[in-house]
Amino acid sequence: MDKRTFLKASGLGFTALGALSFGQMANAQNKQTSSTDTLSNIVGDIKPISVAERRERIAKAQSIMQKQNIAAIVIEPGASMDYFAGIQWWRSERLTALVIPREGDIAVVTPFFEEPSVRETLTVGDDVRVWQEHENPFTLVKQILNDRKIKHGTIGFESTVRYFVLDGIMKALSNFNHTSAEPVTLGCRLIKSAHELQLMHKANEVTLKAYEHVWAQLEQGMDQQQVKALMSEAQQQLGGSGVWNMALFNEASAYPHGTRQAQTIKEGSIVLMDCGCNVHGYQSDISRTFVYGEPTKKQRQVWQLVREGQQLAFDTAEVGTPAGTVDGTVRRMYASKGFGPDYKLPGLSHRLGHGIGMEGHEKINFVRNEKTLLAKGMCLSNEPGIYLPGEFGVRLEDCIYMGAEKAHWFTSPPESLDKPIGKLEPLTV
Question: What is each CA distance from 59 to 43, 71, 73, 158, in whole angstroms?
Fold first, then answer.
């Protein structure tokens, strides 16, 4: 379960609206309405991934498969299925799978009664094999391979394929071995195209504009549910899809992903938000930390140190640098200032950042021992934080993409706690 799913499902940090008076709730609602009335959709001119682009992806995957001596790969519903075939579906106990052979047309296996729905988003290929409720769906995978004259070899399974799927397919394919399909899927998805970067840039623009509006609407007495509602509505009005939001106040901001503690905004409150959306399937992920009212000296010092760490990470992220070096450089700087060391609190208790693209969390990560060299087209979050248990936490997060030599911001971070939003940077592709 990734962060977005967790935040949507758990309700962490939510408190009842009853914590506020009727008048406070009405004022907050009026302010929300007046805020979102000024927002309009900004994604209408952005084109989704085309059929031609998906065909190019499949051809690249097949080229990698031939080099890796992989006969075919199997993918369940999720980002990779969407990436190659456009299918937007979900997983259940009934098999729906995409089969990409090392040469020839792709094929889909799905229940008979689901075929019309699956075809609604299928953009590449027309070979859909269906099975009835009493039948064994795994034999259809064998049939697909037989039709493409693939009688033996190695089948690659995408890293999130469930065991019962792998087990069922391999029982049907007695002449085959299996391996990870990650060299193929990651080999295609890790490096983003110019079009993918444009979609991510627009998603980040949506989220940053939403922050700008929500920051102006914060009021004393608001709880997380109200602030999250403001942010959700703002991102949707701006054209974002798959919106997700987190808001943590006061001592709860020291918990990076939230707590069930009741929280409301008061004078001097830290307000830590972590929010995002997608545009045509490509994600944003931005964190901001505000102070409601006048910040204390300690709040300013910690906020500024987090910002310095974020800039240090950005400056360290050069093409050819091992990704783990970026995390280590920032962590050592924080230790020199009395935080940590390593993951100890008070300090930075999580990795510095994660890959991002169609999924909010993708490989690779800014984390210790990550030896993958940064390369043009990689996209990652840059999100240092400092957390002081029992007091407060500060996190700043902006996503970067690697250029020919160095990192570039999608959104550049704020320079001070007094101007806490930041700005959208031009896309240099």
Answer: 29, 14, 13, 17
Give mean pLDDT, residues 318-326: 98
DSSP string of 125-164?
Answer: ---EEEE-TTS-THHHHHHHHHHTT--SEEEEE-TT--HH
Q: Which residue carries 């309009």 as its tokens?
A: 40
Residue 75's nearest CA partner among 56, 94, 52, 96 is 96
Spatial CA neighbour of 97 closest among 72, 70, 60: 72
Q: Are 342 and 367 in contact (CB under 8 A)?
A: no
Instruction: Record the tokens describing residue 62, joined without a space.
Output: 């097949």
- The pLDDT tens digits for 100-145 are 999 999 999 999 999 999 999 999 999 999 999 999 999 999 999 9
The residue-averaged pLDDT of 205-219 equals 98
Mean predicted confidence (pLDDT) in 396-423:
98
Determine the straight-line distance between the first and last CA of the chain, rounded to whole angstroms.
32
- As beta bridge partners, residue 394 has 386
Per-position DSSP letters for 224-278, written without gaps between them: HHHHHHHHHHHHHHTT-EEEEEEEEEGGGGGSTT--SS--B--TT-EEEEEEEEE
Evaluate if pTM is beyond 0.85: yes
% of the chain at pLDDT higher than 90: 90
CB-based contact 327:366 (threshold 8 Å): yes
- The rounded distance, in Å, linking the Cα atoms of 287 and 395 is 6
- Residue 193 makes CB contacts below 8 A (sequence gap 6+) with 53, 377
pLDDT of residue 27: 45
Would you tell me the crossing angle of helices 22-36 and 194-217 to the nearest 10 degrees? Answer: 140
Structure tokens at 356: 């991002």
Least confident of 122-126, 255-259, 418-422: 255-259
- What are the backbone angles phi and psi of residue 140, rounded to the nearest 5°? -70, -35
Q: What is the pLDDT of residue 10?
A: 46
Q: Are strands 128-131 and 107-111 parallel, antiparallel or unpaired?
A: parallel
CB atoms within 10 A of CB 30: 10
